[in-house]
Each structure stands twice: as structure tokens, then as C-alpha cells.
Amino acid sequence: MAPQKLCTYFAKGRCMKGNHCTFSHERTIDSEQHVGAGAYTPRTTIEHFDTTGAVVTHGSPLAQIPKDSRATIPCKFLRTPSGCRNDPCPYLHRPDGYKVGRTADPEVNENEVTQEKEGEDDFTRDLSGALVSFNDIGQIRRVSLPTDFSRACITGLPPTIQSETVVQMLLGFGFNIDIECVRISRSTAPPKTKALVKAENPSFAKELSDKLKQQKTEVSAVPLPIDSRRSNCRKVYISWHKATRSFWLKFGSSDIANRVAQKFAKGHYKVLGQSVTCSGVKGGAPRGARDGTLHNPVAWTVTLCDVPGDVTNKDVQDGIHTPYDRPRHIEPSPVSYYASDTQVGLEVRSLLEEHGRLESFDLPPTSRGRRVKAVAWFEDEADAISACSLNNKQISILQQGKLTLTLVQSVKVKIQTPVYFASKSRIEEEMKTWAGQHLTSRVYVNTVPGFTAIKVEGANANDVVRARKVLDEISQGVILRDGENPIWASAFKTNGSAYKKVKAIEKELGVLIRRDKSKCHLYFYVPFAKYQQAIAHIREALKDESSLSSHINLSPEQFSRMIRGGFKSVEQALGRNVAVFDVISKRLTVGGTRQQYDMALAVVNGADAVEIRDVAASHSLTEGDCPICFCEAENPVQTSCKHTYCLECFEDSCKSAASTSKNDFQVKCQGNGGTCSTIFTLQELKERLSSSVFESVLRSSFEEYLQRHPEAFHYCSTPDCDYVYRCTAASNLRSPAYRCPNCLESVCTSCHARHDNLTCAQYKDIASGGYEALEQLKKKLNIKDYPKCTTPIEKTDGCNHITCGGCKAHLCWVCMAVFNDGTSCYAHMSKAHGGHGGVPLNLMGW
């Protein structure tokens, strides 16, 4: 028997007859060569590449794809720390370096899989309108403001120009620009090739524009504004319609045609288990036959639209399971495009890489719905934003079908797991609201022991930020108040009987109550129906605790010791917020344990605070006891140096680090009686603190840095505006006003006043009357401005060594000399003024 003739349409991937074709659909080497490089094969049901790069397919033999020539080229993403995350990668994955990457479907519920990869935190934050970089232990590495930069758009460049050429051109004009700061726009037509250049030089763009104008060439530069709003948006969702086709079902009866159309419309009939779109019935007008009956030689037609491209006539016929509904004839349309998901994915990935380097590209082997969905992570946010210009772009591989790209904004908030479960009902209600705003939210319970992470993603940045604020509000709780006053007692600062009663009330009512010892607040969590009950129970419990605080009435000698640094020794021995020193009544109140009372009494009587604390730590602080409150750790947190804290004590210690650090910011372990040398890294703090507390630690470090550098940065003078700006030196010229990007008010960066078109000198001359009166009053009250930060200081008693509470500098009150430490200041006062106290007012320098 002669071999069956090969179907030439099948060889080109365009045969519409499927199994009903009378020609051979066997694939041979010759037929594969005949297809050529430009032909695409029908989409497979499931396909992926194995570790050698060969194609593995499941489904119809129609879906066999020739081996891709790129299978011999090593995958460059496989060498990155995150590995290649694209399962259907066409490039070679060598067995010795092969790493399985998780395929990500944006619709997959991530509670059912491993938590999504999260990039390493570079500890850079947008605070008060500044981009702040922190080092490993939380100290400020760098502060960048939008006004520190300028950006230029260079046009008139050759179509084939590279970034290296632009860098060399700028170097010829005297600008040393890093190649990473140059981006060639590839989305415009060749005659409009342009380069975007950003430099840390406020005048760069204007100077470059002026120099290019002097050259009188086609190349020109235009300054561009700097966007001060920064967000983490390196993730892009990409999708495109799956290959589809239409089917025309021919019927000889209008009744049958209408019945079948209704069943498809209602979902009674499906194709391969999937509902399809069905149009109305169309047919010709009937004509009279010779026998007098109505006869219609033109069939009634039902059109099925958006049917998956790999569906055959038999699949459609099998979907119509009632025999008397079967059509006379089924006619398919051509497929909308013939490329497989993998081939389209490779083309899309190539288009994305024209805008910047990808960290990963995820294309699931299968996807639900009518669209193929992929996820791309860019290394740089600017590249992700640029890539979104491909949205609604027609590409030839889809037969002019369009891509859809969405830039994804995301936040992840970490809260304590007990707080999450207490507030779960409210969080779930908020998630329903977010879903209506097209935000995706996911919960990861106990990703870190004791903490639950909630992730919110969406295309609208404002909606994502609002969701973040709601989560912060939920995690904070509601302050318990008796009327307008917060409910609090000093006994709550320890884990004594008062706090144990609060925990008993918490268990009895089935609520959650959290304490914040630094703010002296109790926070209540839902259900709010029991809010008043909790207040009544705690108010009753406090009546029995009022007598538990111990008082030490100070003798004149003891009082003198306290005001000369003795109270600081008490705090050093007991910890902060345990004892209260009332100067008026000359009384020391200790709200802690009996042991803490004995320690305070010993210090009052002259004992050394460090020795007292060391003895207490060595004799009474057992393993597992908190070094802050000396009690058994509640919600224990163990640090890298093997010390165990109460979670609350650890959070309070971290939040107060900025105010307790003697020099630069650091969070130091308080174990071994405060002698532990461990300084916690930001990575360790991030793992052990909730998101809100960790961010507050970073902000406190930044605020402490601003206080120490008042000559460099200043807060905007508008009330309730926390943005900062960089100070400039005073000048007799009219300096350009700085317009705050937050409140849009203008302020002079030299004298920090609002004087519009006046110079600083002119403004001060006009306002001199008020200043003179103020200076006279300050002199009368013995108030001076700190030379470094201009903070007004009043001296009422004590020696002439003053430490500024703002910038932490040391000052000689007599001559207003500034020093970096107290020792240098005392040495100066002894040498220059013969001592450190008792200098008459008329000898003090003003």
C-alpha cells in the first residue's frame, strides 16, 4: 500500500481538519525542515523544558515542537542567587548547576505554597521626604534628597548609540557620570533616540543644556523634574489572550439551533469542561417548496466564540451530549495565533529585557482562565516603570494581539501572631474591601516564630498605602481610657501582681490587652463590645494595687546625692521607668519588685549602681529571665548572644536606643547586667521585631541623626509637616526658596524663614524690632541659644557644663564654647575659667 500523502497545511501548522483530515499528519525530519524558522506549531496542552533543554510535551501529538537551538546556550539566570525561576526556560540548565525555580501564577493562593521570594532588604527608607540609607547596625550611612539630584533628557542622538558613548560624551563636557545613571530609551522610533541621565548634582541638567546650546549641534538636553515619591515597584504582571478560534454549528431547524444556543449560553453545554461564548442564531428566510411546506436550504448557524485554540470539531461535538441536538456540520475558523505559550513568553521576555535587566521571569506551564499570565521582577524600579510602556502593545507573534502589563505596588506588614488572631475578623472584613479595590492580600501565619505577615499588592499605589495604614492601625490597638485619661499604673511596668491581674482579665473576657511600657499605655483589641467591661475590671483591680508602690523619703544628704547624678545611678541599677524622682516632695517612688526597692535604697545610701546590678544579676537573674525587668521572660525573644528578653521589654529597649546612645546610634544588648558587648544588627532586629516597631527604630535613628546635624538638615516649618530639607550657607544674595514637596510651602534654606523675594539680611532688618525684644527677654531670663543647633537653653542651677538634649553636643555656659565630650569641656572650664561653677552673670559671654 502506497504511503499516505503528507498534509502540507499540517507541516505549516495550519491544518484545520484535525483527525478528519484525509492526509497524513505524521511529523518527519523533512516536514520539520519544510516548516522553516518562521512557522509556529499549535499550542500544547502542557509543555516544559527538562534540565537538558529538550522539550517535553503532554497532550496531542499535534503539539510536538522542534528542539530549540537555544537549548545549547547556558541560562545566565541560573548563576544568580535566586536562580532561574522560569520553569519553561529554553536555555540550558546544566545538571551540576541546576536549580529548580518555583513557577508563580498570580492567581495561586500563596497560603498553599511556600512564601513568595522576598528581596534582601538594603535598609534604605523614604523618611520625611529623604532617601535614607542605614548601615548594618542602624547608623545613618547617607541621606539623599530630591534636590540633591538633577535629570536631563538628551535628544538628537544616533539610533545605535550605546550608554558607554553617552558617558564619554558627558566626560568631554566635564561631567563624570556612572554608566548606571544613563538609560537609552528603546521604545521610541530611531529618529527620536534619547538618553535619560541622572546625576547627583543639582545644576547638572541646566549646565549640560547650556553647554550643548553653545555647541550648536542637533544634540540637545532638556532638564527633567525629579519625582520625589519613591516606592517599591519592581514587579510587573504580564498577560495576553490565549490562542482562540470560533466554531460555526450548522442546523437544519431553527428550534434546534435556538435550543443549543441557549444551552451553551446557560453553561449546560461546555467544550472540554469550559464554558464558551455563544452568539445568537442566524439563518436565511424560508421559501415555499413545491409540496407547499416551508423549506430553508440555508442552515441556521450558531457561532461559538473564544474557544481554546487546541479544541477540535470532535471536542465540540462531544460537548453537545444530547443526540437530537447534534448539528449537521461543524466548521472551525483559523486559530488566532499558532505560537505556544513558551514561544510567546520568550518573545515577551526579550521585549522586557530591552528596558532593563530582569531578576526573574515566571511563566507557569499551565494557567487558568482565558489569559496566559507571567510575572517579571526587574533589578531596578525605573526599568519596571519603563517596561510598562509595552502595555497594549501589539506583537507579531500574537498576530497583532496585545500585551497587558500592570506595575505592581506591594507592602508586607508583620504583626504579632496573637494580635492577628485577635483581630482576624476585622482583617478579613478589610480584605473584602481591598478585593473590591482590586488589591490582592495574602496572610502568612508564623513565617517567623511569633509573627504573622500580611501582604497587599495592587496597581493603585494610593490604595496600597491606605491598606498599609489600616494594618498599622489594627496592629496598634485602641488605648484603654477611663474618660479622657489613659488607664495606667506604675505597677504595670513589671510582671508583678498588677500585670498578672490584667492577664487574668484578658483571659476571663476573651480579649487581648497589650501594654506599652515606654508610652505608659494599655492597648485593647477586638471585640470592642467588651471594651467597657475591660475598663471596669482593670479599674477595680487597680484599687488593690495602689498601696504596692514603695516610697523612699530622702534626707537632705540623700536628696543632694540624687540631684547630683544619683537618680541616674538608680535608673542604671533598676532600668528606666521603674523609679520616679519627685523633686518637690523630695521623694523617690519605686513601682517595681521588693528586690528593686532594696537596690534603689542601696543606691540612695551611696552604693555603686553597677556593683548593685551585677550582684542582682548574678544571684537572682536565672537563665530565661529578662535582663530589663528581671522577671521570667513573657513571650520570650532570644538574641544571637543567647540572652532572653520579654518581647515588650525588647521592643521598648530598641525604641529607646536613640535617646540612650551616648555617641552614634546603636541598639546594645542589656544582658549580663548591661555589660554584654553585643550590638544588634538591623537584620537581627528585623527578624525579632514587628514591622511597625522595626520601622520606628529606623525612624528614631534618623531623627537622632537630624538632631546631631542641625547645621546640615532642618525640618519644614509648617505645622504637622515632617519633611526635611538641606541647609545652605547664609548669603547676601537672594537665595531661591525651597518649596516643600509635602505641604508646598516655601521656606529659605539659610535662615529658615519665609521671606519670598527678600534676602535674609533684608528680612532680618524688617523684623529686627521683634528680635531685639526677644533677645532682651532671653538675656533677662538667662536663656541662650545653643551655638550648634540654636536650641534655646535656660540655666537655673548646677555647673556650667551643659549637654544639649537635641544635638548632644557639650557646651561651656560661660563662653559658649562647644565640645564633643564632657571631659574636654571640664578641662576647658578649669583652665579658662578656674572651675566649672559659680561664675557671676555679668562675667558670662553673650
Automatic annotation (TrEMBL):
Which parts pass through the membrane? Answer: none
Q: In which pathway does it act?
A: Protein modification; protein ubiquitination
Q: Which GO terms describe its cellular component?
A: ubiquitin ligase complex
Keyword Nucleus tagged: no
* Ranges for domain RING-type: 622-839
Which keywords are on file for this protein?
A: Metal-binding, Repeat, Transferase, Ubl conjugation pathway, Zinc, Zinc-finger
The identity of this protein, by name, is: Uncharacterized protein
Please give the InterPro entries that the UniProt record associates with this protein. Answer: IBR_dom, LUBAC_E3_Ligases, TRIAD_supradom, Znf-CCCH_4, Znf_C2H2_type, Znf_CCCH, Znf_CCCH_sf, Znf_RING/FYVE/PHD
| Source organism of this protein record | Fonsecaea pedrosoi CBS 271.37
Q: Which domain of life is it from?
A: Eukaryota
Which biological process, per GO, is one annotated for this protein? proteasome-mediated ubiquitin-dependent protein catabolic process
* ZnF segments: C3H1-type: 1-28, 69-96
Per the database record, which ranges form the C3H1-type domain? 1-28, 69-96
Any one GO molecular function term: zinc ion binding
Q: What's a Pfam family this protein contains?
A: IBR
